[in-house]
C-alpha cells in the first residue's frame, strides 16, 4: 500500500511552490481587511517573509534554482510585474494629472533623484570600499521608489485615507516615473565602468540612453496609450467589444507596451507608464472600470507572488566576506542600510519643500522624504546591470561567469542591492504600522480611537482641506478638474 501511494505522489519543489503560494494568497485574502486596516501591514513584507521561510535558507520548499531558473527569468519576471504596476499607476492617476502637477513631480524626479543617487553612491564607495563606477551602478539600482511597495501603502487602506490625496497622487506619479528615469543614472555608471573616453561616455549616454531609451520610449508609450483609447472608444460605441474583452484590454495594452519597449530596446518602464498615462488621460476608461478593482487584483496575484520569489532567492551566503568581495560584511550592510534610509531622500525633500507645490508643511515633507521604498524595480535594474557588465547587452548570462574582467563588480552589486531591497521592503512595508501607533499616542486620551491605531482622521501636521487634500479627483475623471487649482511654486509667487 505504501509503495503504491508513494508512486501516486509527486512532491516536487515546483508543486510545493504552487501549494504554498496559493495557501498564502488565500489566507491573505481571507484576512486582508484585518491585515491592512487593523494591523496596518501590506503584502510585500509578508510575501517576502513567506519566501524566506519556505525558501532554501529555512525549509527548502521553494527553491527556484532547482527548477533551472536563471538571471534571465528573474529579469523578465520583474520586467513584467513592474511594467504592469507603472502602467496601473498611469491609469489610476487623476484626469490630466501632469498638466497641473508637473512642477512637483519634476522636482521629485530631477533634484531629489540626482541627490539620492550621488549620496547613496558616496555611502557605498566609503563603506563597501568599491570604485566610483561600481558605487554609481549600485546607487542607481537603489534610486527609484518602487511602485509595487508604494501602491501597497498608498491605495485602498485605512491609512491611505489619512494622507492628503495630493500627496498620494504625487508619490504614486513619482513611483510610476522614476523606475524609468533611473536608467540614465544606471547607464552613466555602466559606461564609466567600461573605461572609454569621457567624450564617448557622454555621446553614448545622451544618444542611446536619454534620446533613444527614455525620450523615444516615453513618446511611443504616450502615443500607444492615446491611440488605444481612441480605438477602444470606437469599438465600444459601435458595440464591437464585449464586457470581458473590454476589461482584458487593460491588461493586454500593458503587455503590448512591455513587448514594444523590450523589442525596440527602449526604456520598458517609461513606455508602460506613458501608455497608461496616455490611455487614461481623459478619464474615460477609469470611469468605466473604477468599480472593478483591476489594480488590486494585480497587486494580490502578480506582486505578492514576485515578492515570495524575491524572498526565496535572497543570496544569504554572499552577505559575508568572500575572496572576491572581502569588504562585504553583515555589519557594513546594516550600516549602509541605515545611512541610505536616513539620507537618501529626507534632507533634500525637507530642503526643497518651498519649491514643491504639492508639499504644504514640513510634516508632509518628512513623510514624503521617508516614503521612498526600494523594491522590485531595483531587482530588475541590478539584473540589467549584471547583464551589461557580463555581455555588453541587456540579456544576462544564466549565472555570473567564473572569469570576467568585471568579476568583482558583478559579484558586488548583487548582494549589496539585494540586502538594501530586503531592508527597505520590511522597514517601509511596516512603517505604516509605526506611524499609526505613534499618531495614536500623540493624541489626547479622549481623542484616541477605542482600538489601538484605528483613527480615521487625517494625519496631524498635514493640510487636508481647501484644495490641499480632498478636492483632487480620486481617480481619473471623478470630477471637473477646474475645481482644483494647485498652489503655485515658490518661483511663480505673485506676492
Give the helix/strand layout:
Blueprint: H1 2-8, H2 13-30, H3 32-37, H4 43-54, H5 71-92, H6 97-109, H7 111-128, H8 132-141, H9 147-154, H10 165-181, H11 183-193, H12 198-237, H13 243-263, H14 268-279, H15 284-289, H16 294-313, H17 330-343, H18 346-352, H19 362-370, H20 376-391, H21 407-442
What does this structure look like?
The chain is mainly alpha-helical and 495 residues long. The chain has 21 helices and no strands. The longest helix has 40 residues, at 198-237. It is globular. The relative contact order is 0.16.
What is the general shape?
globular
Structural class: mainly alpha
* Main sheet makeup: none
The residue fraction in helices comes out at 55-70%
- Give the termini separation: 88 Å
Mean pLDDT score: 84
Q: Which residue ranges are poorly predicted, with pLDDT under 50 across at least 5 consecutive positions?
A: 467-471, 473-495
Estimated radius of gyration? 23 Å
Strand content: under 5%
List the helices and strands in order: HHHHHHHHHHHHHHHHHHHHH
* Total number of helices: 21
Strand tally? 0
Amino acid at each position: 500500500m505504501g509503495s503504491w501511494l508513494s508512486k501516486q505522489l509527486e512532491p516536487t519543489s515546483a508543486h510545493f511552490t504552487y501549494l504554498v503560494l496559493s495557501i498564502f494568497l488565500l489566507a491573505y485574502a481571507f484576512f486582508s481587511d484585518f491585515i491592512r486596516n487593523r494591523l496596518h501591514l501590506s503584502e510585500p513584507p509578508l510575501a517576502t517573509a513567506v519566501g524566506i521561510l519556505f525558501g532554501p535558507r529555512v525549509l527548502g520548499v521553494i527553491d527556484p534554482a532547482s527548477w533551472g531558473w536563471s538571471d534571465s527569468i528573474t529579469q523578465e519576471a520583474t520586467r513584467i510585474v513592474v511594467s504592469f504596476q507603472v502602467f496601473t499607476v498611469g491609469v489610476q492617476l487623476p484626469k490630466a494629472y501632469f498638466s497641473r502637477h508637473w512642477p512637483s513631480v519634476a522636482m521629485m524626479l530631477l533634484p531629489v533623484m540626482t541627490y539620492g543617487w550621488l549620496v547613496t553612491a558616496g555611502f557605498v564607495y566609503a563603506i563597501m570600499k568599491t570604485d566610483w563606477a561600481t558605487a554609481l551602478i549600485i546607487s542607481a539600482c537603489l534610486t527609484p521608489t518602487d511602485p509595487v511597495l508604494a501602491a501597497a501603502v498608498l491605495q485602498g487602506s485605512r491609512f491611505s485615507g489619512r494622507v492628503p490625496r495630493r500627496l498620494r497622487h504625487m508619490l504614486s506619479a513619482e513611483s510610476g516615473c522614476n523606475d524609468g528615469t533611473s536608467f540614465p543614472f544606471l547607464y552613466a555608471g555602466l559606461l564609466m565602468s567600461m573605461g572609454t573616453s569621457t567624450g564617448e561616455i557622454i555621446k553614448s549616454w545622451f544618444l542611446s540612453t536619454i534620446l533613444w531609451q527614455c525620450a523615444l520610449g516615453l513618446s511611443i508609450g504616450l502615443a500607444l496609450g492615446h491611440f488605444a483609447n481612441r480605438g477602444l472608444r470606437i469599438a465600444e460605441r459601435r458595440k464591437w467589444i464585449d464586457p470581458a474583452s473590454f476589461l482584458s484590454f487593460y491588461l493586454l495594452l500593458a503587455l503590448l507596451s512591455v513587448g514594444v519597449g523590450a523589442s525596440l530596446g527602449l526604456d520598458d518602464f517609461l513606455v508602460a507608464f506613458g501608455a497608461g498615462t496616455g490611455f487614461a488621460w481623459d478619464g474615460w476608461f477609469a470611469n468605466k472600470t473604477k468599480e472593478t478593482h483591476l489594480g488590486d487584483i494585480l497587486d494580490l496575484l502578480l506582486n505578492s507572488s514576485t515578492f515570495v520569489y524575491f524572498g526565496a532567492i535572497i543570496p544569504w551566503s554572499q552577505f559575508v566576506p568572500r575572496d572576491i568581495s572581502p569588504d562585504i560584511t553583515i555589519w557594513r550592510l546594516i550600516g549602509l542600510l541605515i545611512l541610505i534610509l536616513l539620507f537618501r531622500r529626507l534632507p533634500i525633500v525637507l530642503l526643497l519643500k518651498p519649491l514643491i507645490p504639492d508639499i504644504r508643511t514640513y510634516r508632509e515633507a518628512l513623510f514624503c522624504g521617508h516614503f521612498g521604498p526600494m523594491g522590485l524595480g531595483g531587482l530588475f535594474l541590478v539584473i540589467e546591470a549584471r547583464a551589461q557588465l557580463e555581455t555588453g547587452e541587456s540579456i544576462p548570462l544564466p549565472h555570473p561567469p567564473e572569469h570576467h574582467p568585471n568579476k568583482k563588480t558583478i559579484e558586488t552589486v548583487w548582494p549589496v542591492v539585494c540586502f538594501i531591497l530586503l531592508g527597505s521592503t520590511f522597514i517601509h512595508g511596516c512603517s505604516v504600522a509605526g506611524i499609526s501607533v505613534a499618531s495614536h499616542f500623540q493624541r489626547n486620551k479622549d481623542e484616541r480611537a477605542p482600538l489601538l491605531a484605528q483613527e480615521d482622521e487625517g494625519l496631524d501636521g498635514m493640510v487636508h482641506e481647501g484644495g490641499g487634500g480632498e478636492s483632487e479627483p480620486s481617480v481619473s475623471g471623478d470630477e471637473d478638474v477646474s475645481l482644483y487649482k494647485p498652489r503655485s511654486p515658490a518661483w511663480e509667487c505673485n506676492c
